[in-house]
Amino acid sequence: MACSYLRFTAPNNRCIQLIDLFNNYGGAYQAKQGGSFYGLDNQSQLIVLFISSRVNNYFSISSPQCHGGFVRQYKHESTVLGCSMKFSVFFPPEAETRPVPVLYFLSGLTCTDENFMQKAGAQRVASEHDIAIVTPDTSPRGLGIPGEEDSWDFGTGAGFYLNATAEPWSKNYQMYDYILNELPAALRGLDKNLDVETASIFGHSMGGHGALTLALRNPASFKSTSALAPICNPSKVPWGQKAFRNYLGANEEEWKQYDATELVSRYSGPSFEVLIDTGTDDEFLKEQLHPWAFEEAAAGKLHVKSNLRVGYDHSYFFIATFVEEHIKFHAKHLKKE
Questions:
Q1: By C-alpha distance, which of 246, 255, 160, 260 is closest to 206?
Q2: pLDDT tens per residue across span 317-330
Q3: Residues 48, 122: one domain?
Q4: Would you tell me which of 2, 99, 303, 318 could form a disulfide with 273, CB atoms 3.0–4.6 Å apart?
Q5: CATH no. for residue 270?
Q6: Domain count along the chain
Q7: CB 207 within 8 A of CB 161
Q8: 231-258 pLDDT tens trace
Q9: Rounded-to-integer distance, Cα 152 and Cα 109, Å
């Protein structure tokens, strides 16, 4: 067989999940003309199976229902990163009947695609505003590169949403291209109704850095951008300096292309709104985040609303408190004609 991944289509014609035929399907199957398959699974009633060329390199792992929609986690082989990658999507109920806009959330250090989906409580308001939320992973995984697992703030779980140019990271650590190009292409191949061309982006901490840099370098690709406790000036703080020195090399001029404060200081594109929230009790505020540097550099170039939230820290309690405001901010822009 040319493709080992088959799509289960239930009697109501709704796609339930993709199944790895060779490893996970327990029933008999029979090939028909045109690449269709009919099978009887050992655990279910008679169902129809067929191959879709659009999805022959990734499949659904889980699909719990949430606020009338579904949170689906997918696994696929990334050409850009050279490894298997997971991403999660919240499909609001409206995605059953029409294409809905996409809101990307980029997570912070040590996170996976699951943290935001499980902890932020964003699905209710996303469902109310008919927005799909997409959460990618934060780095390639399982590559076996020496040093990849040595620290929590570099390597696995800390891809920094850039394209590495220094060895040994340059072959695989291409998260910028993955988020900007390969992930949207994967979303277009899903059977659900996603309007991938109408998209916004936000993130937390390292992910806030990623959201700001991606939006500043590609303003036509995103309708809006926001950030929760972002690393705003990474070339000037320890987290960013460690990542940039290892991923990009010693030339600090190369670092500027992934530094939101440096990018906005020389930005000459169309002005857009940016929403930033940071907690006054964030333990990383003074050493790592520096939102004031971005605000100062963006003056006269972007419409930045930066809030210091009294008493809040860097945790998901902070994210869960203010995520509704951020989704409503993006909904306003995603629904513009």
A1: 160
A2: 999 999 999 999 99
A3: no
A4: 303
A5: 3.40.50.1820
A6: 2
A7: yes
A8: 999 999 999 999 999 999 999 999 999 9
A9: 7
